[in-house]
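Troubleshooting log. The previous run stalled partway through. Resubmitting the same two chains, unchanged.
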Amino acid sequence: GAGVSQSPRYKVTKRGQDVALRCDPISGHVSLYWYRQALGQGPEFLTYFNYEAQQDKSGLPNDRFSAERPEGSISTLTIQRTEQRDSAMYRCASSSDPSARELFFGEGSRLTVL
Amino acid sequence: AQSVSQHNHHVILSEAASLELGCNYSYGGTVNLFWYVQYPGQHLQLLLKYFSGDPLVKGIKGFEAEFIKSKFSFNLRKPSVQWSDTAEYFCAVKSGSARQLTFGSGTQLTVLP
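Second attempt completed without errors. Output:
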């Protein structure tokens, strides 16, 4: 596609449920990043991939969060046993080169945990 | 760890007024600096970036930013704002060897027609 596509755009779930957020990067982009943005804050880094390899997951807040990019294209961010504090906008970005000179962001997935 | 401070959370201007949004970062080494913008209902997009060379960087839509190393600052400026500049603006920093960006908390700019 022309841009980074994220789905679902909006997700409302009950506490304790698992959620999966999907990111389809710009075709051919090597690097893919996940960020989380709480209300009134800037995006915070979660994790990133070069091709299918997860290069850095230091930003994942705890072991309920995981991400994969098995074929080096589409990525899924999974949150297990969701908690209310997980409510946020989850943003995906991709870059054509590993040095991240420019990130192209998707429109985000708004997660609300009740 | 590096951090980014945007001191103005909400700025309200009239059309044709001049704009300056502050951005300060804390990191002593080589940095790459960015301003991203999010227009209402749209995704984050790059406004301008600094990697090296001339510290005065020009971006899209008439925006510019100046990197002042001694002040650890990268302020965003525009001589004359338009109603269409209403958006949220984020400053971001990437240290030389890192791959992830550290963002500030953002500044909401409202331009009154």
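Takeaways: Chain A touches chain B at residues 3-4, 31, 33, 35, 40-45, 48, 55-56, 59, 91, 93, 98-108 (CB under 8 Å). The mean pLDDT of chain A is 95.
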